[in-house]
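BUG: 3D viewer hangs when loading the predicted structure for this chain

Environment: internal workstation, default settings.
Expected: structure renders.
Actual: progress bar stalls at 90%.

Input used:
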Amino acid sequence: KSSVDLIRAHEDVRLTALFSPEHGIRGSAAAGEGVSGGRDPVSGLPVHSLYGKTKKPTPEMLSDIDVLVVDLQDIGSRSYTYISTLYYAMESAAENKKKIVVCDRPNPMGGTVVDGPVLDPAFRSFIGVAEIPVVHGMTIGELAWLFNKEFKIGCDLTVIPMRGWKRLMFFRETGLYWAPPSPHIPAPENALLYPITGLIGEMGTLSEGVGTPMPFHLVGAPWMDG
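Structure tokens produced before the viewer hung:
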């Protein structure tokens, strides 16, 4: 069930707007494809794009809300932009004195592996928003706590914790349904491969299998001798 529909059905809450990260509200837009605002065809609610002309909620976008709810399935890698959207949303909430609620979700890689270099601040960007390792080993709720305290955002933050999750769990072990957070992460196993083959693909000389039925499972090019 979509969290949008669940919140709309709650009689004590009035949902006034949706905020879209990369890949769109329904997770169907391709990587890097700009997301436009407008109206959600399912709910009829206004949609504010956070992956277009602006990547940070503006005061105007937040004017009709009391609480901004962040419910995103992260994949455990620093370059996945959902955590950058979280960071900017928390900054905007602090600046505009709005409450922010983060619904925690499992890290599909589990919570015990922390690996790769920590971001050099000189290369900070939307695919590297904070000085954390390539594989950060945290849930999105834990990242929210980290951003708020260690990076001194200081927003009014509540994290809704999970029940039953253990750090050693890969996503398949949770028993939860995997709703693809983007078209190229159709299964939780793609998240395990993304930190390495995704970097290779970003170099622009090799394919990482995106566009095939096995994104991030493959590395190749027509000129390579297999």
